[in-house]
Amino acid sequence: RNPTAAPMHQPTNVAYIDSPPALQELADRFAGAAWLAVDTEFIRDRTYFPKFCLLQIATTNVVACIDTLALDDLSPLSPLFDDGDVLKVFHSGRQDLEVLYQRCGRLPNPIFDTQIAAHLCNTTFSELSLPSCSKAKLNIEIPHIEEVLRSGRRMRSLLQMAPQTLAQYFG
After folding, report:
1. What does the alpha-carbon distance between residue 82 and residue 66 come to, in Å, rounded to a whole number?
2. Per-chain mean pLDDT for the chain
């Protein structure tokens, strides 16, 4: 980390979700949120369709890492994804939306894509990844999750990391 970078906000509550009751409890907990940050992790190697492995959803004080390999049914999240009063925030969300549509049969709405917003704000830096945008615009350094994935680990080992470690990747 760069010692001059602004400190990264640390969530006060991180949850690892791998059971239907825990997913329903999380959905109830997020009800009424003004916005949700949403990110997915998936494997696209040697497959036509991506293999959805992890769904990360966060608000100001809660980060949830949802093990989509352990859960067949994500329908408890449908009311959140369908709620027009809850803004769903993505960064470069095209593939996230593809994976969510493939698994849930619908797209969340409304959505806001921070990468598209960066383009509209005439961002001039060459890479528009979330770590690059946060460093350039907010002076906040966050790690690239791709470094973990390229190190030879697969999603299962990523899911076995401590939830606090997962939360640092999601921010």
Report:
1. 18
2. 79
Contact (CB, 8 A) for 52 and 76: no
Whole-model pTM: value is: 0.75
Q: Sign of dihedral through CA atoms 163, 155, 160, 73?
A: positive
Give the type of residue at 157: S
Distance of alpha carbon 84 from alpha carbon 93, whole angstroms:
18
Query: Is the pLDDT reported for residue 7 higher than 60?
Result: no
